[in-house]
Every structure is written in C-alpha cells, then in structure tokens.
C-alpha cells in the first residue's frame, strides 16, 4: 500500500472509496484527490488528511489514477490528462457505459485500463464492484483494483462485454430497491400504518431477506415458497403482482438500463 493513488473527481462515490481505502489500511499520505471546487478539496483534506492536487499533478505523480467523474465529462478530463500520463500508469474508470477502448485510444499506447462499475452502497461498505480488464491490463492490475474496491464491499470480475448488463443489475440496482421500499411504504400507509412504522417494518424485512439470500445458499424461489402458504396472504399478494406484470416490467426496466449504458458508450447524451 505504499503506492500513491489519486481519485479524480471526488464526489460521493469517490469519497466513499477514499474513506473505505483508509479504513482498509491505506495511509492518507499516499492518497491524492482532485475536485472541481477548491472548497470541496479542502473539505476532503480536513476530513481524511489526504492531499488535494490538480488533475495534471495527479497524472504526473500518482501510480494509479481512479477516474470518478460523470461519463459526459470523461472526454474532457482525458484531454487534460493525456499529455501527462505515462504508458505504465494504471487508469481505473468508474464511469458507466464507457469502454476501456475509449481510454486506450486517448492515452499513451499500452496504458493499462481497468473498468469498474460500483454502486452507492459503497457509502456503507456494502458495494458490489464489477471489474473488467482492458487490453493492456494484467492480473496484477486487476488484483490492485480488487484491493482498492474491496475496501468498500464485494468485487467480481467479468468480461467487459458483460459490463452493461452488470450496470443494469447492480450499478443501478439499489435504486430499484429504494423504489420498491417507497411503494411498499405507501401501501403501508394506505393499510393504516404510520409512515415511520411502515418504513421500519419494510427495511428490516428487506435486510433479513437479503441476508437469507446471501447466507442460506437457497434459490430465491425456494425462499419465497417457504413464506407462501396455500390459500394464504402471500400467494394472494403474489397473484396480484403477476396480474399487474411486475416480473415483465422488471425485465423490461433492466433491459432499458442496459440499453442506456450502451448509448452512453456510443456518446449519446440525450
């Protein structure tokens, strides 16, 4: 962990990654950050003891560059970095939809690039980070990316061809669960419960169900069947979900998210 790592564009995800690295044992002296606003950079210095630098300084001095700016800003950032990034510098991209070839074409020939799609549970060290190698990235580069992102949750390697699907499933995934909790809370209120009690009931049920899925090794169908008694309350609720096409809607929604990820890769913004 003696290598210097720079997080460029340190927003919420970048800060979550930064704080997770420190909890995992990285020395703040080895961590550099860039931010669009100087006040934000100083805030990070005060909070974590890291060193704010410019993008150019980061490119010149860090051993690993982690780019966490928005996809639409990545081209501009690479134009700024390209003259200063030597071919051996590891570049890790956290931008949805942008393939490693986009970086390789704009940086020095042979630059190793690793693409990572993480998600907002990085804020509570429960992220799912999906890692793919560019054409010049080695096993060592992938292991280094796993070391970094392992500080904020679980990591999984996939071929880059699967990244858009992973973005739809796990990158955007937390939003689907928040949406479901929002809808279930509204239902609880309709059924006569105060909002705070409905919220607590649903959140704890969600946590318990997630732990069961993770730790039991059982298929979700089996776990659902264990709750579904003949002619009971659960099967009546599931019938209504099926009648309203919830399963088909979820599949269509994830396909739409995957397609949007592909559009971002092609440069389409609207």
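-> sequence recovered:
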């Amino acid at each position: 962990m003696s290598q210097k790592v720079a997080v460029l564009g340190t927003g919420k995800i970048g800060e979550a990654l930064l704080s997770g690295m420190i909890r995992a044992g990285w020395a703040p002296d080895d961590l550099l950050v860039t931010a669009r606003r100087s006040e934000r950079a100083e805030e990070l210095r005060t909070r974590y003891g890291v060193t704010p630098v410019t993008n150019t300084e980061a490119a010149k001095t860090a051993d690993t560059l982690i780019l966490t700016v928005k996809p639409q800003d990545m081209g501009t950032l690479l134009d700024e970095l390209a003259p200063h990034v030597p071919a051996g510098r590891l570049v890790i991209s956290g931008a949805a939809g942008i393939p490693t070839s986009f970086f390789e074409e704009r940086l020095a020939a042979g630059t190793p690039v690793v693409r990572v799609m993480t998600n907002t549970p990085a804020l509570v060290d429960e992220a799912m980070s999906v890692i793919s190698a560019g054409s010049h990235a080695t096993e060592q580069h992938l292991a280094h990316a796993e070391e970094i992102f392992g500080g904020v949750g679980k990591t999984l390697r996939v071929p880059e061809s699967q990244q858009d699907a992973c973005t739809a499933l796990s990158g955007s995934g937390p939003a689907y669960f928040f949406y479901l909790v929002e809808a279930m809370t509204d239902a609880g209120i309709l059924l006569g419960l105060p909002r705070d009690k409905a919220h607590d009931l649903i959140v704890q049920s969600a946590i318990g169900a997630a732990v069961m899925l993770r730790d039991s090794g059982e298929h979700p169908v089996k776990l659902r069947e264990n709750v579904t008694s003949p002619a009971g309350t659960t099967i009546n609720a599931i019938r209504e979900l099926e009648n309203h096409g919830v399963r088909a809607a979820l599949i269509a929604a994830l396909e739409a998210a995957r397609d949007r990820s592909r559009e971002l890769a092609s440069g389409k913004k609207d």
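The beta strands are 5-8, 31-34, 51-52, 64-67, 90-93, 113-117, 127-133, 153-157.
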